[in-house]
Write a sequence for this structure.
């Protein structure tokens, strides 16, 4: 899938692109059918919400589930990022975020590149998130919120929040968020939340400031995120477990466009369990 010049310009200006209904209901149904089985597994890749069994985020399903292994090589998700970076990519991170009905908790304001830089020593913001909605995303079930154009600010100061939710995050302080929202238009477009049917896709810059509120609705809001990194920009430090920040820098080779509907052989090397060396960081935390 090739981005047009108008899309490239919009991405440069806003820091994200939204593609409503890019995947068909049948393609999404096949992915969705796999999620309960993945979330039910007792494996470290399932991070649960605080005080609940609901999955907040699941890591690396492309390493142990056939359908998600195919999604990780889908040309509609991978090719636009190859085009933007002008080089081949590898999978830095793969996650299926639950944001489950009633239980899905907030994601505080942050930039993903802040984490990739601070934790993984990724040299530059040449990694991108590509999200696909597996559920209808609406104003009630905690859609992703963006501050358009905030990627232009580069890396912002962030503090390591290890207490608000069950998952530690490098978060941006309230004053900075307020100023950036004002700069982006305040009440008139300073925050946007792309909403749409299952199968919609969002591509967003590693420095784009984003967040999502909790999900008090009776509807799940499952999103899959591929974090695709340019090969030359591979991470330099393995502080986080390998299932969170991958250490294999193999170029992604796309499958054909119908890969969610037809069987294509894919590798799922962690099907019988996560290799021991991928379960921990290889560095001690600083005292
Ligand atoms: C994230 O920013 O990594 C997750 C946000 C969300 O799924 O709402
Ligand atoms: Mn994020």
């Amino acid at each position: 899938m090739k981005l047009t010049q108008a899309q490239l310009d919009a991405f440069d200006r806003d820091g994200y692109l939204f593609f409503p209904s890019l995947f068909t209901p049948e393609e999404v149904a096949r992915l969705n059918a796999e999620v309960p089985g993945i979330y039910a597994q007792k494996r470290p890749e399932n991070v649960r919400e605080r005080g609940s069994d609901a999955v907040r985020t699941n890591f690396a399903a492309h390493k142990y589930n056939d359908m998600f292994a195919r999604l990780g090589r889908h040309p509609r998700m991978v090719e636009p990022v190859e085009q933007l970076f002008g080089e081949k990519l590898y999978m830095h991170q793969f996650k299926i975020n639950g944001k489950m009905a009633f239980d899905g908790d907030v994601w505080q304001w942050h930039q993903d590149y802040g984490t990739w830089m601070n934790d993984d020593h990724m040299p530059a913001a040449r990694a991108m998130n590509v999200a696909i909605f597996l559920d209808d995303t609406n104003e009630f079930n905690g859609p992703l919120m963006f501050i358009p154009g905030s990627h232009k600010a580069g890396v912002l100061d962030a503090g390591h929040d290890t207490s608000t939710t069950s998952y530690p995050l490098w978060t941006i302080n309230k004053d900075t968020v307020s100023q950036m929202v004002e700069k982006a238009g305040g009440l008139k477009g300073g925050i946007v939340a792309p909403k749409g049917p299952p199968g919609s896709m969002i591509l967003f810059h590693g420095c784009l400031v984003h967040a999502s509120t909790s999900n008090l609705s009776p509807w799940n809001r499952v999103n899959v995120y591929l974090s695709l990194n340019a090969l030359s920009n591979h991470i330099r430090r393995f502080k986080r477990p390998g299932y969170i920040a991958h250490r294999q820098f193999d170029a992604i080779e796309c499958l054909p466009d119908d890969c969610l509907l037809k069987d294509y052989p894919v590798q799922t090397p962690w099907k019988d369990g996560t290799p021991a060396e991928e379960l921990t960081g290889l560095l001690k935390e600083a005292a």
Remarks:
- The pocket of manganese (II) ion (ligand 2) is lined by residues 110, 112, 210 (CB under 6 Å).
- The first helix runs from residue 5 to 14.
